[in-house]
Amino acid sequence: MTERRTRKRRKMFERDAELAAVDEALDQLTDPGPDAGGALLAFSGAAGLGKTTLLGEVRRRAHAKACTVLAARGGEQEQSQPFHVARQLIQPQLAGTSDAELREALGSWYSIVGPALGLCAAEQGAPPDPQGLRDGLDWVLTHLIVQRAPVALVLDDAHWADPESLSWLAAFAPRAEHLPLLLVVAYRPDELPAHAEAFRTLPGRAGHRPLTLAPLTAEAVSGLVREAVGEHADEAFCREAWAVTTGNPFEAVELTANVRDKGLAPVEASAPLLRDLAAAQRGSGLVARLHSLGPSTVRFAWACAVLGTDTPRDIAARVAGLGTEEAVDATGRLRDARILSAAPEEAAAEDAAGLEFVHPLIATAIYRAIPDALRVALHGKAAAAVVDAGLGPSAAARHLLETHPENDPWVVRTLREAAGENLRAGAPEAARRQLARALREPPDFDERAAVLYELGCASLLTEPANTVNHLRAALAEPFEDPALRQGIVIRLAQVLSHSDRLAEASECLAREIPYTQDVRGRLRLQSEQFMWDAFNAAEPDSPARSRRLAKLADRLSGRDLTERYVIGLRAWDACLRGEPVDVVLHHAGRVLETEFSWAYADRGFEVPVLVAMVHMYADRPERAEELFEAGTAEFERQGWRGAHLSFAYSLRAYIRYRRGRLAEAEELARAGLRLAERVGRRTPVHWYAIAILVTTLLARGRVDEAWELSREHEYGEPFPAAVVFPDSQTVYAELLLARGQAKAAAAELEAVDRRLTPRGIQNPSWCPWRLHLARAVSAEDPERARELAGEAVRRARAFGAASGIGQALRVAAEVAAPQDRAALLEEAVSVLSASPAAYELALALAALGEERGDAELLLRAVLAARACGADGLVATATTALLARGGAWPCGPGSDADPDADPASTSAAAH
Length: 910
What we know:
Elements: H1 16-30, E1 39-44, H2 51-64, E2 68-73, H3 84-90, H4 99-106, H5 110-113, H6 130-147, E3 151-156, H7 163-172, E4 181-187, H8 198-205, E5 211-212, H9 218-229, H10 235-245, H11 249-262, H12 274-279, H13 283-291, H14 295-307, H15 313-320, H16 324-336, H17 348-352, H18 360-369, H19 372-388, H20 393-400, H21 409-425, H22 428-440, H23 448-458, H24 464-476, H25 482-498, H26 502-512, H27 519-535, H28 542-554, H29 561-577, H30 581-591, H31 606-617, H32 621-638, H33 643-659, H34 662-679, H35 684-699, H36 703-712, H37 728-738, H38 742-756, H39 769-777, H40 782-799, H41 802-815, H42 818-833, H43 838-852, H44 855-868, H45 871-883, H46 902-909
Parallel strand pairs: 1-4, 1-5, 2-3, 3-4
């Protein structure tokens, strides 16, 4: 960043408290001892109160302490340019680095953060999500801080920083205390955006309140005047200077400069003249002073105001319509008038350095004084000038946003190109603004549908309701491109589904399929409809859809991605309906015969997830984990660290739960929930995260904690319209049952029956609602409980997964007649011993041990439960063991190897 240049460094008046806070923070930052640490300082104050001068002193003192200084400044005209501030901070630190060195330094983050920071062009493919990009920026900045410690990061005019940079830095700010970093920001309090509120509150937790700069007192202004014009300035003159500037340091400095330039005697007789001099520094007075410099100088000043901070003189000259010599003359006149900052001391730096106004107040006043029509025209000229200068469409777009629509194809094309760059760089909101402006230009008749489609893609994450409107409007346009039409329909179905409107998603695809002439295109739309129908919990005719899907999938060879998606959906459907495991794995194997990415640019990740999950339900958890590890790595490489990564962590947690690795499951589930919270509550990803964490906590015996979690996150009715696994309502009923609310649990489970049974979802390995309902009604209706459990056993045997059969047998024993329990439990233990379900085996061992009064079985149950991390089961089984005279073989402190695999530990115990 180019700092504002002044003729000489001035003494700072009445800023001792602020500078003491800076010195204290710098001393702590550079302390070689164990007490060293970072801090966050925030300075707030109205315009002209000296924030920039104070931050200049912070930079000077940081340099004197051998700190690396990262500096940036928000700009009023640059707020719509994404990552403008982030680039100022980081680009200079990587200047001169070759592309190969950058790739090595940034590693997997290169393609994610590189485009946002202007270090490389964005690659084709799906862009990173905003959270993934922020994580990448966090990594890059943290890496720089650690490498170049200690670091002072100074952000001036934070209220004008672009939203992308400001929200990132506000979220990063709490880390300052834990890094060798002093983060200093200055802002106008009335203009700080809501997404940067952290800068108001975080300093309080760091031991400082935001430090508010006060106007100077009369004594301070007197000192400033005498420093500038001489100690002979009399008191009445100095007091009037304070009165007309209201203690504003910028106005006071400018006033004294004008007094000196005009040779005004600093005596009481001259005091009445100060008010007019002060008025000439702001508003209409400043504008009048500018116009006195001549028309060409006025045009040049207007061009600089339109172009913003750090303006290249040759571009400003072109926008103003001046030649090179005229621009040099205009620059000199504006510097002499203290409108533009002084030239750098080294002549060689003159051409390389951009032009800066002395103060943002001056830039704002001049910009607002430009006649409206002329200001619009100047922005149009600026857009063309920056493109011709090689700065690219993104630099031009901020100017085109300020122009009026004129039906100009170049404007539409430039805005679309800029939006594409920003979307791929991870700034969808900026892309949305640019495409919305392109739509108003308007585009040519045959281009309108494409612009609407791109606008829908850009607003997908931030404005799903508007995205639906844009895409439906695109479909209503008359155009001939079948590939574009297919893309619009698929994207519309996607956003409807992600908004919990799955029936509408299916309907929009169904309407399009009959009119799609291309066979492959029609199959693609069919595959999308099958997928969203599979996730629709209220699908009206699920059995018929299953028959159509089976008939279609069985005749496909899997020759392309669309066919393999259909086959993958067939594998999932077979799993839900409880077809034999061999059939399920056969179809899943067909999908995985060739590479099956989780991150195709034009596909969702849902089908790859379903294919991985069928392996878990089919007792192949190792294969499921392999697929999830590969998929998670792809998400991270793409920068998808929001909903995608949350799903991956939560479902990996579920796999660990099914394997009986409960502590690991809880850790992963909590990581998934943290990511889901970023996405939003009561979204599909949030339902998954809560359901899996509640299930895991119940298995660990922490019922009260699971209940508090469900209350905190409003887990309960209304349940989502989308299919969630484990089924949300079933998990909620299991929670009620664990709390002893059998009747309430039974009511929820009856509702699950009414929802799933008509859809043909009958596999107890996928949703054991019958088993939970059997337990819930066993006290009042034991006969029905046995029928339910018996039916669950029959369906589990039909599916053929040992874990599901063993669980069904164990619960059947729990509700069976006393004489039948032992045999059912013996079979459960036998079946589960050959399965990966270590926690279920521990439950069955404990139940059989209690049924028989067998201390040896109970000891094995305790060992298996300990290996799983099932603390509640350990406690109950230990109590039962000791009650039957059992004891630990090596004393009461004996424990299983905590690093051992639960399944192997349980099998050894058996």
